[in-house]
Design brief:
alpha/beta, 11 helices, 9 strands, 38% helix
């Protein structure tokens, strides 16, 4: 054989040998299997600097990928539910959604993944959506001492330092992120933004109570933590401890300047979704009574908190969008609506198409 031909063949085989492997999904019209997607995600995920890492990924219900992330700080495995962006081949920003005081445990009233239409809503949107599961009664903050029931939550560290690099590498994101939360986590999103300036381009707080260090705020926080048998002294110390003020977004609102902010609340009065066949009720009269009583009381409190926060932002001339509904209880139907209504703000902050 001609030496030139042999040389060309050698070059050809060498080039093929060093080409990156192309997954079967690259073949036009052949979508990857859910298991292949999960496997690729784990293969791409890089550990955080402290060793936090994705250890497993499995296809979940409704297009979710259930990723297990081992937190080095808490020395525990956290389930993170992931919805990938519409175009999985193009980099996309990330929206983190935090659950309320139950932490999204399905046995404790559930959360974003089973109480809202988020799967359908985000199906055509170029954004990765990440929902951590856990953190009940923790305010998603770093606790100062071990708690006999809740352990030693270090969620601020997990959410701001450990999880983002794992998610960014696994999903090939743009590195741009935002975060939203409901009820308890409607407070947490402000605290997380304060703890990690610049990490979130936008935050959404739905029915949260942001002022935490005045007597009313301390009573509210203590009631939420106590409802899960935790002791708030293990979180921020006894009432009056400087940690309460240090974690109060109302007092440190100036540190939120430059972040896109959306805040919403109802008044507690029964609204259009507080009906026998409203979201999450399904004709159950007992559930409706609970929503009309407990949900009304809680939303009355958050309405007062939100009014105060709006005045605080106005005094400091910090731009923010406030959606003050004339009615509505503390319930998932309204938070689903809040997610829809705030999405254009998030899309603009994340530099992605809102459609």
């Amino acid at each position: 054989m001609d030496r030139r031909i042999i040389g060309l063949l050698v070059l050809l085989f060498t080039a093929v040998a060093v080409l990156p492997a192309v997954p079967a999904a690259a073949e036009p019209g052949v979508p990857p299997s859910p298991h292949a997607v999960a496997a690729a995600l784990i293969a791409a995920a890089r550990p955080a600097d402290d060793g936090t890492r994705a250890t497993a990924a499995e296809p979940g219900a409704d297009r979710f990928i259930d990723v297990t992330v081992h937190s080095a700080a808490m020395d525990s495995d956290i389930t993170v539910k992931v919805l990938r962006a519409h175009d999985t081949w193009a980099p996309a920003p990330t929206l983190y959604l935090l659950n309320g005081s139950s932490g999204g445990d399905g046995d404790n009233n559930g959360g974003w993944t089973d109480q809202t239409d988020m799967v359908g809503f985000f199906a055509d949107k170029q954004v990765n959506v990440v929902v951590p599961i856990g953190g009940r009664g923790s305010y998603f903050t770093d606790w100062r001492a071990d708690d006999p029931v809740l352990g030693r939550p270090l969620w601020t560290t997990f959410l701001t330092e450990e999880l983002p690099p794992v998610i960014d590498s696994a999903l090939h994101t743009t590195g741009v992120a935002a975060i939203a939360g409901v009820s308890m986590s409607g407070t947490s999103v402000f605290q997380l933004a304060m703890a990690a300036p610049g990490l979130y381009k936008a935050i959404g707080s739905y029915s949260g109570c942001v002022e935490t260090s005045d007597p009313t705020g301390q009573a509210m926080v203590s009631a939420v933590v106590g409802s899960w048998s935790g002791n708030p002294v293990n979180m921020w110390g006894p009432p009056g401890d400087p940690a309460w003020a240090a974690n109060d977004p109302y007092l440190h609102a100036d540190r939120l300047r430059g972040t896109a902010i959306y805040v919403s609340s109802g008044t507690g009065w029964p609204g259009p979704l507080d009906t026998l066949y409203g979201p999450g009720i399904g004709g159950d009269g007992i559930k409706l009574i609970g929503q009309l009583l407990g949900g009304a009381l809680l939303e009355t409190v958050t309405d007062t908190c939100t009014q105060g926060l709006r005045a605080r932002f106005a005094a400091l001339q910090i731009p923010a969008t406030f959606q003050m509904r004339p009615s509505g209880t503390h319930s998932w139907g309204y938070w689903q609506q809040d997610l829809h209504d705030s999405w254009p703000m998030f899309a603009d902050a994340l530099a992605t198409d809102p459609a």
